[in-house]
Structure formats: structure tokens, C-alpha cells
């Protein structure tokens, strides 16, 4: 009897996602079938839903963030830590699949920049074998080159953000860490999932003051639980007032490192003047083109001898750091999973993220399969 | 009326220290007179007392670790953070005075290696102006090139270790930090004051497992309060058992970074095999020659591609990091000040350190001056 | 009998410099009297002459670049390499004087960012003791905190650029070096003195291709002698053509590191798209405010994961690197000293730099003093 | 008609290698058949020949260093630089094949430490498919995970050393480069192929003085052509004299970085005292266990705050750097290929390396196949 998967499919931009039943194909050597236990709804999913991401080809099963349980393996596999992976294991994985052959994989040691990198739920339509290419589904087939980590038996939904924002934040913090001394001051712009992870990394890097700026008070308050020492709501303070506060905290110097996690050009122009002479500005919040920024070059960059770093996605190292960070702060991270939806509520889930109502929303696929769903009209 | 200082003086090696009264000279431009509120008794003071440190010339007022209150300033002075220093301020300072002119100060950016560096309580006998050159006294005169930091109004004795072991540990950890990812495993050999600070830095660097090895159970237990996750008492485990434990904790890899804080060559030879391939070994516990070490070069260093770093003393950056670390963990650091002595008990204080009875012993000079003390027979 | 110095003084912006005779004061402890043998005319001197540099207070003896011979020393002094300095020695020095006490000097190890840094010929008017504060003169008094290096007996004028553009270029290249592998491609924007030094550093860092862009063909040609492999004259190629050339040289990747040495915002916006994904852009050519730059943030910085570094002035380490670079390429550097003027021709010298006629212009003060000059009306 | 390969096989340790004819199998997907044009005879091949390398299983076709021409490809392949590889191309490759999945490949970015790494001519006996696993042959089959670079049409034999000693030297120099300033002093111990490459890298890193120590005068002389400034023959100077020479060159400091390329423990103990305080010692010359080293820990490591780095093999990045270095110094590298042998002279080639007669010996396989050779008695 054929096995089937339940998949939530984006068939038309800005139209409700459709629940479809798809045949689970025979696994090719190296492939791994995973039962998704929780899938994350990322802010960039909203952009994809709206047709603003050029990487997408329809029909698409969205979902690049996921955790699940191994159902079937075609061959043996180990984690990067050398642990044998078995059927039944709860796992998380690097959402990006790397070629291992290009300049960035073999020469420059910047694997997140792999020229052939593709991500589940973004680059491969459901038309492309093995079809189960996204996490908004009850099953996913992992490519043989996917790096996989074992999870413990706590609620797997809590680990979902580790696969995207947690990993990207780890990548951003990789640039911050060597620039920080014990007790230094870190500024984080944007208290979403990315920013919350940055607070956790800053705390775990010995920062003495962790300042978070943003516009959603409930999220700013949540940052305090992760170790933020100061929160500034931009609705209550002008940029000038924010600068005064930051300077008063930092003996007039400005922050040692600022990390942008908002995806807003306004954050960039407001944030650079808050960095001390000789400090660093790291920009990690942009997932797509956002237009041009304009700022005084000499004053912001040259005279202050500032180091500025762009951050694009993440690699396997960062997923491991994110998973460990959740493990060490499980109770706090459990609180950021504010919304849980069924697969059928995929569209509502996207809306909860678009409205910033949810800090983090996850889809929980059914444990039992649907009795009756409309067959997907695709040659699969 | 002449002002006088009470000084505990080492006049002869291995003989009790003598309490002497010395005239406080007029301050030269840039000098600062400090009332010592607490002075640390360092393990290396014991070596000096025993005549094993070639840097020493008698008669000597020992004490390179100290905190105190500004009594008088000859000129203006700021902290490195730009704060104005005033009479009455509680302060701590870099125990080493650097020339600012040599290769290490101006070219290689390794100021702790300054070729003209000297430290209070070590390099300058009481015969050398301004005579009040050590912290085993109720007054000290700071040299104009001394870097000074302000303290808060909590018990100043708790900050004493920041000026020596805390700073040296910060220097050692400066090499560890860029090699660590979130959740990595750190091994610390030696649970004394140096090792305890290393535990605190490891905790503040996101280490997932912090293993401490040593021979004094009470100190190992204290490390747990600072964040150690695993302690191994070498009286209960052979080196082979220790290796097994470490490998079992680290998926068979070995630790990412090991830090030696014991000053024992046995720690070096036992510790290097515990480092993972591609890891780092940092040796910070030696203050004086300790003989030759012998180990297999290919197996320990080459095949494992290990990075090994020697650590000598510290600089002003490290004092700041240590002070901040005490500030962020004040309650715990208060516990390591296990013994307090009067100046008259200086010799007993040295004995409490020599016997490892004290984790950290401090001298608390009198607030009022002695009524009658034998005049020091020196041309001061 | 009073000793006198001949000084070229800027008394009014945009007016010819005046030759004045000034009394050479008694040296204070630590001061060193130098007979200037050659002084550099920097592009920023032109800005100062025009009143565009807010650091300047008139009357001013310009000249932050100089070499000379020790005439008199008040006390002993060593070079940072530990060599004793003697009267009669030919020397060069760090044009910036650092405090040694501030955050940047003692904590962050970024001494060029010293909050109290001042430079000969820029920050101290001739009214400020010891009055001989600039290099457009036959004598200069070095401050006791000045770091000094010995020169060999070759033409000292050739070493002049080492004290400013050579040192700043060394600072810029300090950020480039750890990002370069053997045979990588470096882009340098601007073939002036700064850019020429950058070519020399790139050559001495194993770069395989060194591309220089600029608008003055003779300077571009000169870069070829220093090791440039490709020169692109912007008068002959549109930015799009330049991009095509750069991509064709670099397998379509773009350059590994680009260094801006032109002080032009157009260079910034043209240059960033030439950097490969994961590469670096270092901006060192700006000495004063130049307005706002505008560019696409996501495309230039985030998606390409680019590292961008601002560079402000230099420190003593960089002067040493620059001097060594001239020593190793003496014959080539001799060619860039295209113009030599007497002190009386200071204004013409500035014009030769303003017009870009000179690659590098130097003033050669007289060996004998002027017989008759108008006394400077200053209380000195 | 079956295609056959001519292979020089080590069937018994310390016995002459045997010329065998082997069938060339059908290529599996991803495999590439190469016609070897030159194979290097490495010092470690001598150890393998003598049975001292535990990685070896007989019968073995030695030869981990090789260059050749693509004969047949099973599938498409690009270089890490994105160039399409075609039949007929002259190529070189990373001698080590990495798994791409382990901790070192995916997490720690130290791919040369891959736990599953294997090398042509070392780890895989001729019994293991595809049997043509070593370079002492006229044909080799490259594994699909092998990273390959294109060569130009100059004599391919000159590129042979780039695949082993040149790559390992690049790996060693990767640790040296960030520690060097322009004009610094580098010491290289051992003037063999590894040391010669280190001289080239030091030259290409702006070193001002490059000192080489060794025992073979002709090789030391050859180092001068690559840029060494000082050579010291240990047969003419005691270690004390060598130290005096080094200190006299370095203002009494010692060298900034020393690189061991001799594989001798005596070099280690002699070399560490030549490193300046704050300098680095990098050991790259050992390919197998060599016993224990004994030295004073405090004096060599701690007091001098020395950084010591072990170096094990190399990765693809290093092969690229080595190839580029040969390209940029082709005429000089052509001189180090001092001996050329036919495949039938494999044993003599090993002897020429064992006796240190050859700087670099290569095997040049026949362009035409042998008419009559004894069939290899293996089930292949």
C-alpha cells in the first residue's frame, strides 16, 4: 500500500494554502524520511507567500524550519558529532543543503555562501523529486547531504527556531564574539526571534550590558528574561533620546558591538551612530532587497574606524550552536513559541506572523493522517 | 607633622615579616597616595618569602594585589574609561607598571610583555623611592603610569583577586574565547583562585561543559558554584580514568580548550592528551621556573594540530575584565575570600596560603595607626 | 647666543605661507630637537591651507610628515626596537602623539584611536609651547612621548611618505592581510601615495592580481612598477566596463579585498559591487567629512556577507611597517618623490599637490639659516 | 579491448617495487581517469617503503603527489573556482579525500582534520576498488569527492610538490601570516621541499629577514634564490652560535615566527629558544611518531608567552595556494626538481630521496605502455 503525506501547498501567491495528499516515494540512497513534529513559520515565509521572494517557484510547500522524527533511512548516517542516527530519533537539521565542492565550501571556509546552496521550503517546488521538500507537511525527505543533529525528548517545537533564526543569530554572533571583552556593551536592534537569540548569545559571551531596541513592548519585555539589561521602545524615545541613553550607559563611548536584527533600513541609519569609535556593526536582519541606505561615510565609518559586517544565512556550525543555546535556556525559549497551529491553519499562522502578534508561530502536523483530502493535481 | 605608614617588611627570607613605620614622602607629580583597604596574599608571595623568586631585592614590602581609597593626588587623573578620579574614591589598579615606549607597548600590542614592566610588591625594594611600593602596608604610592579603575562601595576585599589571578585568567581566556563555539567543552586544571576565575570566564563564554580537575575537594566544590559542570578529584581518579571521563563527556573527541591553572608539570603532561584534535591548550599557572617537561611531540602536538599558548601575567585590559567579572558574580566571589588577617599576621597569612588552607587570604590593614612600632632602619 | 629656527607659517587661510624666524627654546626633559631634512606636503595640508579642517588653529606651521637629524636631546631615549638614539642620528617618527592612558591606548589596543592623540603640523599652533610643532620648518621639537625610528643614510626625503600615507596604508592593510590567501586578487582605488603603498603591501602579501583604478595615467603606470598587474583608467572605462574587467580577472567572483584610497564617495559606490561574496572592503582614503553615500544595503552588504572596515590614521606599528617597506623598495619609492621645493616655495608646493601634478612633493629646508627674515609677531 | 595501466607496486617492505599491469575498470559515476604525467617521491614514501607507517596495507601503489591529464570523466565536474573540467585538461588535485560530513568538515572548519580523510598512495591498497589508487603509475582514478585544479601548459613535473609539501607549507603559513608584520623576521628549520615552500610564503608575506637553518649546503643555497636572507649550516655552527646569530639579526629579540620543517626533535629544542617573547613556533615537519621531546616549560613557553602550533597535512585551500606559489615562482621551482626517474626506477627514486641527494625527485610514467610486464597476481 502506498504511503501518503499531508502537505500544505502554496499554489498561488496571496491565496490560502491548500492541504494536499502526496505519495511518499521510495527513498533513494542516502535519503531520510522524517515525520515532522513541528514546523516554524518564519517572517520570510510571509514574504514568499506574498510573492516577494524571487527564489520561489510554485507550487511550493513552504517551511524551512522544522524538527521531526526519523521514519526511514536509506543507508547509514551519523551526526557531525559522530553519533549514529537511528529510526525513531528526534532530529533537527541544517535547513540549507551545501554542495561541498564550490569555492565557499572548499577554499574560503564560508560554507553558508555555497554557490549551490538550497533550502527546504524555499528553493525546490513540490514538482521536484522527491517532492516532499518543505516543512509545512507531516513528512519531509531529507537530502543525503543534509547535516542532522539529535535532540533530547523535550517538546520539539521549542527547538524549531534553532534551525533558522537561532542559526543565523549564531552566524552573526560569530563576528561579534572576538570583538568583545568581558563586561562589554552590546546593542541589539529588533526583539523578534532573531534578536532574542542574539540576546542569549550576548549573555553567553559575558556582555555586561545588553541593550535591545524595538517597537513591540511585549517582545522587549521578553528580552529581559533572556538577559537584556536595558530595553528601549522606539515608540517612547526619539533616535536622539536613544542615543543619549546609550551614551549614558557607555561612559559616552557608544556600544562595543551593535547587531541589527530588524530588517529595517531605519535601524541601520539610527544604529550606526550608537557604535563606539573602534566598534562593530553587524547586520543580520535582512532577507531580501530593501532599497538604498544613505548615511555620512566619514562620520559613521571612517573617523570611527568601524567594522561593519553583513550576514547571510548560516551553516551547520551555527545550527549546533543554536540547538545548544536552546538546550541551555529551554524554559525561556519555551515561552517564545507563542502560537501553535494545525497544518490546515497554515494561512492563519502566516497572518499571525505578518501582524507581529506571534513571537514565534509553529505548525503541528497531525499524528494521524487526514481521512479525506483533495488529491494534489500535480504529476508526482 | 610627618605622616607615617605602617608597613609589613620582608627583611630576611623565611623569617617573619616585620611591622615597620615609614615616613610618607611628599608626592611627586602624578603620584597618588592610597590607603590600602585590603591586600591579597598570592601563592607567588610564598615563593618570594622563601627566596625562590629572583626578581626580589630585600628589604621588601610584599603585596602586588591590593585595593584601597585615594588619600591624595598630585595632579589630575582619569580612569581608562574616562572617569575623573577623586580623593576618597575606592580604586583598584593594574599591579604592573608599563613603560609605554618599548616594542611590546608600541608595536606588537602585547603590553603585558613590556620589557620594562615592574609590579608593586615584587620588583621595587622599600629602599627605592617612593618606598611605599607594596600592598602589605596601610599606604601605597601609585606611580603616575599606573592604570586605575573605580570600584563600587561593596566590600573591597572581594575585588582583591581581580588585580592578579583574575587579570591573568582574563589574559589566558583572551586566547580561549576565539576558539570556542557556544556549548563547547572547557577543561580547567587547578581549582585555586586562577582556576575559579577561569570557570567564571568559561561560563561567561557560553561553554556547555566546564570540567575542573584538582586535588582539593573543597575548592572543586566551590567551582561548581561558579558554573563548573563536572569536577574530577585526582585523588579519586587515575589520569587514565580522568581521560575516560573526559572522552565520555565529549563524544570521544576530547575538550575543545584546556587551561592549565595549577603550575604543575604533571598537569601539563596529563592535560595535553585530553585536548581534542584541532583544540587548544593554554598554560597560565606557572610563575617561575619549574624544570623540564617531556612528552611525545607528534602525538600531542603535530598529529592533533593543537594550538598551545603560554600566558605571562596580564595587562590593564585584563584587570578591567576581572573587575567586571567580580561585579557580575559578587556573591560567589565573596565566598572565595576565606581568610582575613591583620598586617601583624602577615606571616600567618603566608602560611595559610602555603598550606592551601585558604582559597584566598587577604590582609586588612588597620584603620587607625599603630601607637608604637619599631622604626625601620632604612634611609627613608 | 639664541638659536633660531626658520618656519613657514600659515597665518591666514588661502594666503601664501610666511617665512618666519623663531627662537628655539630650551628643551624640557624628554624633548628632542630635530633638524628637518625633508618634510612632506600631504593632500590634507591643502585642505588645511584652504581652511577646511576644523582641527586647525592659526597661526600654524603645517607639516605632519617629516624626517630629520637629531640635534639635541634632553635625556635618553630608545627606539621601540631598543636601539639607543644619539645626537646626529637620522630619524623618522610617529606623527601622532598618544596619551598612553585612555581606553584606546590601554584597553582596546587601538592606539591610533587614542582620544588625546595629536599630530605635528595639525593640532598645535605655533603659539603653543614649544612652538616648533610642524615640519614646514628647519627645526622641530619632538614631544617626549613621540616614538622614533632610526633611518639609514640613504636620501631621507624618500622616507617622508612613510610617516603618513605609508603608515595609514599599513593600518588599512592590517585588516586586509588576515583575509588574503596566496594568489588572491586585491583591488586598490586611487593611485596616489596611499594607493602606491597599498600596492606595495599587496605585493608583499602574496597577492596574485593587484588591480588599480584611478584617473591619472602617470600614477597608474607608476603602480605597475610597484607590482600592480592590472590598471584601469576611469577616463577610459565606464564603471560597468570596469566591473566586467574585474569579473573576467576573477573567474566571475569579484575581488577578495578592495581598498579605497581616493577619498571619493564615487569610488565607494563603484567599488563595493566589485567585491566578491564573502570579501572585504576597506576604506582608508578619507581625511575629512565628504557627505553622504547611498547604496543598496542588501545587495552590497548583506547578501554578499561583506566585511567593511573604516580606517582612521595610524599608529607606531604602522610607521615601522612603512619604513621597512620603503627600505625594501627604495629604488621605486625614490621615483614617487616627484617634486622638491625650498621652504620659501611652500605655497607652490601646496599647489603642486592640489593640482595632482606631484605624486609626492617634499620641502627641503636650508642647511644654512636665512640671513634676514621678518620676525614672527608671537610671544615666543 | 580492455585498457590497462602500468603500476609500480610495493608488495613487500624494503623490497624493490614491482612493475605490474592492471586492468583499468569502468568508471563509476563521478570518477575521473587521469594519465599521470609526473608523480612525486616524498620523504614519507621512504618511511612507507620501510614499513614504518601504520597507515599502509600491502600491496600498495605508493605516490600521493601527482599531476596528470584527464583521460575520461564519468559525469561533469568543476574546479572549486567554478571552471568546467574537460577531458584533455592538465590537472592537480588535493591528495586527501574528505568526507564532508564529520565534525571537522562541517562544524570546526578544519577540513584537513577530517576523521575520514584518506590519501591516494597511502591509505588504499591496490586491492581496494577502483585499484588505481596511487600515483606511482601511469594512470590513477580520482574519487568523486576529489577537489581538482587546472594547470597551465608548462612542465607539469614542476607542480608536483604543490600537492604535498607545498600544501602543507601553506597550511603552516596560514598560522604564521596573521602574526607577521611587514619586515618581520621568520626562521625556517630545514631546507627541503617543505622548507623551500615556507621560504616562498615568507617572501610573499613581506618578511624582512628570512633565516633558514639546515645541514645540506646545496639546499640552503637554493633557499637564497627563493628569498632567504640568511642561511645557517648546523655543521658550521653550534646551537649557541646559531642563537647568537639570530639575536644579532633581530636586535636581541629573537625571531617573530619560527617554522619547523625538518621532522627532527633536535630542531624543536634548538628552535624554541630562538623565538622572541610573544612570538610563535609552528611545527610542520613531522609525518609520524618521533619520540618524546624534553624542554623547560616555563622558559620556552610561559615566560615568553609563546604560541605553538602543530600542523597536520593540509586541505584544498592549501593546494590552491601552493599551485599559485609555483605559478608565481615557476623558474625557481623548476630548479628543485633535481631528479627524474622512470616508473621502473621507482626504487632508485626512493633511494635518492632517502639519501637526501635529491631535493625533489619525480617519476615520469611512460607515454606508451610497456610491451610486456608480469601480470599482477591480485583479484582485480
Number of helices of chain A: 11
The first-level CATH class name of the largest domain in chain A: Alpha Beta
The CATH superfamily of the largest domain in chain A is identified as Medium-chain alcohol dehydrogenases, catalytic domain
Give the largest interface pair and sizes: B-D, 42 and 42 residues
How much helix is in the residues of chain A?
25-40%
What does the oligomeric state look like here? homotetramer
Mean pLDDT over the residues of chain A: 95
Shape, principal axes of CA atoms of chain A: globular
Q: What is CATH's topology name of the largest domain in chain A?
A: Quinone Oxidoreductase, Chain A, domain 1
Describe the structure.
Four copies of one chain form a homotetramer. Chain A is α/β, with parallel strands linked by helices and 380 residues long. Chain A has two domains: 4-164 and 315-370, Medium-chain alcohol dehydrogenases, catalytic domain (Quinone Oxidoreductase, Chain A, domain 1, Alpha-Beta Complex), CATH 3.90.180; 166-310, Rossmann fold (3-Layer(aba) Sandwich). The first copy, chain A, contains eleven helices and 18 strands. In chain A, α4 (193-203) links the parallel β10 and β11 (209-214). In chain A, α1 (43-49) packs across α11 (346-354) and α3 packs across α9. Mean pLDDT of chain A is 95; it is low at 369-380. Chains in contact: A-B, A-C, A-D, B-C, B-D, C-D. Chains A and D meet through α2 and α9 of A and α2 and α9 of D. β16 of chain B pairs antiparallel with β16 of chain D.
In short:
The structure is a homotetramer of 380-residue chains. With 380 residues, chain A is of the alpha/beta class.
